Amino acid sequence: MTAPFGKVLQNPVQPEATAGNSRNANLFRVDSDGTVASVTYAPIAAITGANTNTRSVSLVNKGQSGAGNTVVATIQYNSGVNAAASDENTVTLSGTPANLTVAAGDILQWQSTAVGTGIADPGGLVCVTVSARYA
């Protein structure tokens, strides 16, 4: 069962100025069981989406061992999918409810992945809202 009680986890992420490169960063160690309710990304500079050579950003639950690969939320900046500078844009949550469940000790990682030759990622602020879960 989830409840409206929880917390917002915030962490800055570094830019990836080289369009073809990818970057992963461990953001948070979850301190209590919960359910991810929302994820936003506020890039420091505008991102203009493009087809073929683009960028995808995702929040991935690496689990407690660091070996997990559960995608919690993702957005791909294709043509028409843009982000204004310093304006939060919603990162789409997984449609699989189990992917939104986190346990105390899980590591949440931000992955900025070049697709094709990619576009630059200016870096910015990631906010993750985790609702408390009660047995």
UniProtKB/TrEMBL annotation:
Descriptive protein name: Uncharacterized protein
Region annotation (Disordered) ranges: 1-20
Organism domain of life: Bacteria
